[in-house]
Model the fold of this input.
Amino acid sequence: MTARILCLIILLLEIRGLSLSIPGRGLKALIFYTQLSNLITAVSVLLLVVIGQPYWVTLLRYISTCMLVMTFLVTICVLVPMGGDPKMLLWSGNGLYHHVLCPVISTASYILVEEHVPGSLIWLPAVITLAYGLVMLYLNWHKKVDGPYPFFRIHNQSMTATVIWMIVLMAVIIGIGTVVCCLAR
Done:
């Protein structure tokens, strides 16, 4: 019951955050990992509230939680230090919901009150994140998209820098998956 209540709160926060971010961008919002992670979270918490937590919903909750933690960490450790406005990214508009409230509450809910996936699945969020990253690199290479994050702007940095960014980001998401699994035991 506690998981359903927390997930309902997360769903309401996700709806509010998405209502602030999607209208101005439309489908272009889907180029942002932040938007994708929050959409996946909205779907996963809606499913948990409506049907409970069969294994596949638990798996979706794990993936979305890891993606939200990645969003949170990239925002505070990369985007803000690289010159992003902390007020805009963290404390107002959709940033408050997508970069702070939803990641923190969703992670707490998954770790503390929801069912968990086995530790053998720590690779899954990395595969999804890698797929997203490769698509964004491809779109940037062909100049179909600019960014949306500095580490995808391959025409503005060396190939070595791009490779290092991708290795670091993969290490971070694998670390996140591992820590979430360990804390959820």
